[in-house]
Amino acid sequence: MNAPAAPDWTAANQRLLVAEFARLRALLGDGEADEAQARLADLRAAMEEPAAIDSLARLFELSAFERDLLLLAAGVEMDARLAQLCAQASGQPARPWATFGLALAALPAAHWSALAPPEPLRRWRLLEVDENAGLTAGRLRIDERVLHFLGGLNYLDPRLQPLLQAVPGAGLMSHAHAAVVAAAIERLQRSHGRLLPILLHGDDALGQQDVAADIAQRLGVTLYQLRAADIPAAAHEQAALAILWQREAALLGSALLIVAQGDDKPLAPFVARLDGLLLVASRAPCGLDGEAFAVDRPDVPEQRRLWREALGERAATLAPTLDALAGQYRLGARRIAGIAAQLDASDPARLHAACRGDARAMSELAQPIEARAQWHDLVLSEAQLQTLRQIAVHTRHRLTVHHDWGFADGGSRGLGIATLFWGDSGTGKTLAAEVLANALDLALYRIDLSAVVSKYIGETEKNLRRVFDSAEELGAILLFDEADALFGKRSEVKDSHDRYANIEVSYLLQRMEAYRGLAILTTNHKAALDGAFARRLRFVVHFPFPDAAQREALWRGVFPAATPLAALDYAKLARLAVPGGSIRNIALAAAFLAAEAGGAVGMAQLLRAAHLEAAKRDKAISDAETRGWV
Fold first, then answer.
1. Which residues does the UniProt record annotate as the domain AAA+ ATPase (predicted)?
2. Taking the alpha carbons of 203, 207, 213, 219 in that order, is the dihedral positive or negative?
3. Of 124, 150, 176, at which residue does a domain stop?
4. Does residue 1 lie within any of the structural domains?
5. CATH code of the domain in which 389 resides
6. Contacting residues for 456 by C-beta, under 8 A, at least 6 apart
7. Mean pLDDT over residues 76-82, rounded?
8. Which end of the chain has the lower number of beta carbons within 10 A, N or C?
9. Which of 332, 357, 382 is the last residue of a domain?
10. Would you say 143 and 248 are in contact if contact means Cβ atoms under 8 Å apart?
11. pLDDT at residue 1 in the model
């Protein structure tokens, strides 16, 4: 029960509470009990909503004596005369408080079981007894939260505030999620006895929260969220938290949403302690007994509908843009609604930028690459360029082919655009990824394999899940550098670590096939890749070591237009057998040497820079390669 905050109810509740204290004073010999009872009856009849004490007695099924015990403990805190009467009755003026012994002697319908630990007053921590003085002589203390409730103040217990977060109401919702809400409510309404938890699993965490909020709203209760990671491990602490929450759920009229994020061992025993409306949200099914529902991010057609609904009249002029947004990003209803509400939706560029959104989830495991390179920056054979352009075509039109033309109807397998770039270091693999990202106007992230691969069993899979989930939402291109370190040949199973490593590779294969975007893998050693993985690649592009003609083209294009150049012999420069990445390094180092000397970049600076690059690569330059440079 969430007591109404209207001033008329508050005033009426306080008048009734004062009258209750007057009745207790009469029972202790100060006043007429019949007169006090009549006054109470009149006040109660005039109230449209139940008084707080009546609601509390109903919620916790208190007997008349237990109700009076609670009022007596509250009265000594709020009514000075009642406190004095308690002191007089005990014969100790310095002890103006209620005791169980006094209540047994003075109050009607007294029973010894009222303060037994399993009974409501003690079980729900409504009253505490100073047991150092004995059960009958010890001071009765009403819990402060309960005292304020009786006075008309209803708020979340401060002991729970650090753990619980109020869940906002649901807004825009997909049809699939609305169906989950309806089905969950139907099952709850058919339940008899203890309600089974509603278990929400899937990849749309915000959608799970919205589904839970809508269920609670339709059932007329408020919803609070608890992270499973904050559930204490110790059994006695779990018990205390469960009691405190269930008391709050009764006082506030609330339900609880527990958000599980992994191996939350305290979750199952804690859930077993709870009654009432409980929802659990998790990425994968959590293994609890309950009513389970999948809550995933909406598919492409549903995203289109959500964009149209969120934008209203503005959607009519943005049909091509909305198709692109639905195909490129994988956003839930709340993200779509938020973007539509906050931005000038007439600007497609701003819509795309907002959809890329908050990339912090990627920052721990991936490095953003600013893609500026263009097609003319690539020095490759025509066959290689044609393959790269086909990759762009597949990425650009995957919405049309997969969804409009029905190729996605068979499931998610094979919908990903997994591509392998292989060749020696510096041959243009990363540059080609930048060109694709720039041409497609997509964010590009290089995956930090040292951060992804973990020595702890199961951690690599979790890291990969985070990478793919975040990348799908951002619509990003993933670039796995030196991919053979992660995607190498599966090992022969010799121990549990080998077995789990193979599970991780299998998980990776599944995610690569289902990934709704472009994933580019680079390696210097194609033969090192797992054969099963190689068969799942849609494109394979070889980046060979550049020949002399290609090296000359690279030299001619490496210097920006503003760079001052002396007379350069590009044919002689092309004799130096280095890949494109090294050519850029040499050109950059020579530019710094020329700037220091106050002149233009010439063959002398390039020769010195070439030797510096060779020393870095621990590979000597032959005389034939640089003969005639200076």
1. 415-547
2. negative
3. 150
4. no
5. 3.40.50.300
6. none
7. 95
8. C
9. 357
10. no
11. 44
Mean pLDDT across the stretch 510-517? 82
Calpha distance 107→89 (Å, rounded): 13
382/531 same-domain check? yes
Query: Do 325 and 373 fall into the same domain?
Result: no
* Same structural domain, 537 and 404: yes
Contacts of 59 (CB under 8 A, 6+ apart): 1, 250, 251
pLDDT recorded at residue 456: 62
Poorest-confidence range of 53-57, 407-411, 412-416?
412-416
Within a domain: 110? yes
Query: Do 304 and 210 belong to one domain?
Result: no
Q: Of 377, 449, 418, whose CA–CA distance to 514 is shortest?
A: 418
Token couple for 367:
């490095």
- Domain check: are 508 and 419 in the same one? yes
Mean pLDDT, range 143-168, rounded to an integer: 96
**Rounded to whole angstroms, what are the CA distances from 382 to 378, 386, 523?**
11, 6, 22
Rounded mean pLDDT, 451-472: 78
Indicate if 240 and 101 belong to the same structural domain.
Answer: no
Average pLDDT of the residues in 290-317: 92
The reply to whether 598 and 533 lie within a common domain is no
50 CA to centre of own chain = 40
Cα–Cα distance measured from residue 332 to residue 21, given in angstroms and rounded to the nearest whole number: 55
412-428: b (≥16 Cβ within 10 Å) or e: eeebbbbbbbbbeebbb
CA distance linking residue 204 with residue 195, whole number of Å: 25
**Distance from C-alpha of 34 to C-alpha of 40, rounded to nearest angstrom:** 10
Query: Which residues have a Cβ under 8 Å from the Cβ of 393 and sit 6 or more positions away?
Result: none
Q: Is 491 contained in some domain?
A: yes
Q: What is the pLDDT of residue 503?
A: 59
- Angle among Cα 456, 461, 465 to the nearest 5 degrees reads 140
DSSP strand pairing (164-166 vs 222-227): antiparallel
To which residue do tokens 């086909």 refer? 390
Report the DSSP pairing between strands 278-282 and 254-259: parallel
SS3 category, 126: coil
Q: Is the pLDDT of residue 319 over 90?
A: no
- Please name the helix (run of DSSP H) or strand (run of DSSP E) that holds residue 58, with its range, or none: helix 52-59
Q: pLDDT, tens digit, for every residue of 603-618? A: 999 999 999 999 988 8
CA distance linking residue 155 with residue 171, whole number of Å: 25
Distance CA 458, CA 461 (A): 6
Number of compact structural domains in the chain:
5
Least confident among 300-309, 335-344, 409-418: 409-418
> Position 52: which residue type?
A
Quick check: 270 pLDDT over 70?
yes
What percentage of the chain exceeds 90 in pLDDT? 64
Q: Considering the domain boundaries, does residue 158 fall inside one? A: no
Read off the pLDDT of each residue in 114-127 and give the average, rounded to a whole number: 97
- How far is 478 from 485, CA to CA, in rounded Å? 16
Provide the pLDDT confidence category of residue 493 given band limits of 50, 70 and 90. Answer: very low
Q: Which range of residues forms the domain containing residue 572?
A: 548-626
Tell me which residue has tokens 């729970």.
160
